[in-house]
Structure formats: C-alpha cells, structure tokens
Amino acid sequence: MESDLSCKSAALRSHLYTTLEQVSAGQRVVIERHAAPMAALIPMADYWALMMHRARARRSKEEFMPTQRLVIANASGGEGKSTVARELAYSLALLGYKVALFDLDPQASLTKALGLHDDPASPARQEEATVSRVFSRDEPLPLPDPMPVHGVDVWPANDTLNSVDSILNNDFSRASNLREAIDARLAAMPEPYDFVILDTKPQRTNFLTASVAAADHLIVPVSGIKGLENLDILLKMVKVARGIAPTLKLTAFVPNRIREDVNHHKVLLEHLHGELSQLAPITPNVRDSLATMGSATELRLPAVLCKPKTKVSEDIVTMTRHLLGLLHVPVPA
Ligand SMILES: Nc1ncnc2c1ncn2[C@@H]1O[C@H](COP(=O)(O)OP(=O)(O)O)[C@@H](O)[C@H]1O
Ligand SMILES: [Mg+2]
In this entry, which stretches build a coiled coil (predicted)? Predict the structure, then answer.
C-alpha cells in the first residue's frame, strides 16, 4: 500500500481538523485502536471508486452484454442534454457498469461541469485530448486516451472541436470516422465498455450528424415545448445518420426539468405521452431542482454522486433503470 497516514483512535478527537484536511487533500488515514487498524478515512473519490468496483464485482460474469452506444441529442439548447448525459453516465457506473462519456459539444458544458477546465493548464483544454483528430484524415486516427473522472472515462471537449464542422463541410465522407474510431477502441479493449454515452451540440451541423451516427440509440431530453419544436430537424438528421449507423433508433424521450404543477409542463407531458409516444417510449420524469443541480455544477460533481439522497437524484436513478429495461439490459438488483 502507498504511504497512507495513520492516527490512533484516542488521538482522533484532538487531530480531527488536521486529519480531515489531510483526507480532503487526497490522503487516506487509517485509524488504529490497540495498535491494530480498525477503520479508514478516505477521500470521497476513493469511496465512489470503491462503490463502483463493488457494484461491478456483484454483476455476475454471465451477464456479458454488448456495448450499448447512447447519444443524447436535441436540436434545441438548454433541454438538459449535458445534464442527462452526465447523470446517466454516473448512475450507470454506480450500478457497476463500465462507462465511457464523450463530450462532443465545443461549448464543453459537460467537461466544465466535471471540473476539467478549472485548471488553465488542464490537458482537457488542448485539442489533442478531444475527438477532433479522428476527423483529420480519411482513415480515422485512433482516439486519444480518455481522462478518468470518478470512475468514468471521459473524452473532454473544448472550442477546438469547432474545426470538425469545417472538415466535414468539405468532406462529409469523414462523418463515419468517430463511429469507426470508437469501434476500433472497443475492439482493442480486453474488457470493453458496457456503455458509451455521447453528449452533443444543439446546432444541426455535420458534426452533430457524425456524433449521432456514432451511436445506436438516440435519447432525447425534453424540458419544454421548445424542445419539441426542432424534433423534425432531429429526425431528418437521424435519417442521414442511418447511412452510417443503419440500426440507429430513437429509443426514448426523457422529460427533464419537469414541474408537474406548472401548466405548460402538464401540456408538454400530455403531448409526449399522447402523440409522441408513437415515435418512442417516454421515460419517467426527471424533476426540476435548481438547488441540487446548482450545487452539483458548483461542486463539479454529478448530482447522483454528491446529492444521492435528493428527489431529483432518485428520479435520475429511476429514469436510468427504466432506460435499461428499454435497452433489454439486465437491471441489477
Ligand atoms: N433536472 C434539472 N433541474 C434543474 N436544473 C437542470 C435540470 N436539468 C438541467 N438543468 C440546468 O439547465 C441548464 C441547461 O442544462 P444542460 O444540461 O446544460 O442543457 P443542454 O446540454 O441541453 O444545453 C443547466 O444550467 C443545468 O444545470
Ligand atoms: Mg450541453
């Protein structure tokens, strides 16, 4: 074991403040009683890694599943794409699945919400860390290595991803490159990801088409009527993307930021559960919770990790389990 600190249980009370400071700086502290280790204080990142590891070990080996590739998209902004992508990724990781998370929006709100842009010197701010290189040649270059964040492998975004659209506008044949690069990465992994989750940009451009075509399932978060106005645009794009991903399907609508007491949300839900349910199933609602989502953003952590007991985190877990059912993936107990 690396150099963990130790503290005698009798001394803990007087050293509590310094001990907690050490833990929050990333140290593990073993508490000793009668000269034997009896407990440990560990940073939360270690705790989450442990929870994910235990959940993964619990999932039996027989439950082999092919990688599920999910793209979160909506041709409108602010519907909750990045939030749903992040929360879904981490609730799946907590259930024991191995998860990859791609930020494919040059605005990088997902990357920022995970704190990866906080340090001006962060590699996440460099073009090399993004998927942009896979579009730089006719034959896709391999993906760069991901950045592990609390048990999930993340491919970050930054504004250099804007260049992908100029490349694809000149040569649309490269729109299949991201899908192919992900295929190659999965094929080279001894234990491939159970889930690949892609967060996308709202503008309907060729990069969005390439992003959607890298998945097999399209998940559409909707938080208002505006989020449905551009649905036909999204569906047209799915048709184009099917040229690259023939089995791509609209798998679910996720009602997000829902306040059931608000009239226009009642109208939205009626519309979703009426006419639109013929297009795709509707998951249970994720409620609107400014307090929880606000502090998650501030803490640079997914709500399911930092505020697991809140109603909105419970909604996210319920939505995730519902989605697993739609994907015919065995749901862990
Ligand atoms: N369920 C929710 N409750 C409260 N705020 C939310 C919820 N979902 C998203 N938000 C907030 O709404 C804003 C837009 O969400 P975001 O995920 O960035 O949308 P998009 O990626 O579609 O542009 C963000 O400030 C986010 O924190
Ligand atoms: Mg976003």
Answer: none
Write the CA distances from 31 to 3, 25, 141, integer angstroms: 14, 17, 49
Q: In the structure, what pLDDT confidence band is assigned to residue 227 with cuts at 50, 70 and 90?
A: confident
192 CA distance to ligand 2 middle (Å): 26
∠249-106-168 over CA atoms, to 5°? 65
Q: Which amino acid appears at position 83 of this protein?
A: T
Domains of the chain (ranges; CATH) run 5-42 (3.40.1620), 62-326 (3.40.50.300)
CA 73 to CA 227: how far, in whole Å? 10
The per-residue pLDDT for range 54-71, each reduced to its tens digit, is: 998 888 665 678 999 999
- Atom 17 in ligand 1: residue holding the nearest Cα: 80
CB of 209 sitting under 6 A from ligand 1: no
Residues around ion ligand 2, judged by CB within 5 A, are: 81-82, 109
Residue type, 324: L
Residue 63: the pLDDT is: 67
Let me know how long the chain is: 333
Q: How far is the CA of 80 from the centre of ligand 1 (A)?
A: 4
Instruction: Report CA 38 to chain centroid distance, whole Å.
Output: 36
> Which of 181, 236, 246, 180 lies closest to 208 in space, CA to CA?
236
> Which among 140, 141, 143, 106 has a CA at the least distance from the CA of 125?
106
3-class DSSP state for residue 262? coil
Q: Which of 71, 74, 76, 83 to mutate to test the pocket of ligand 1 (most atoms within 8 A of CB)?
A: 83
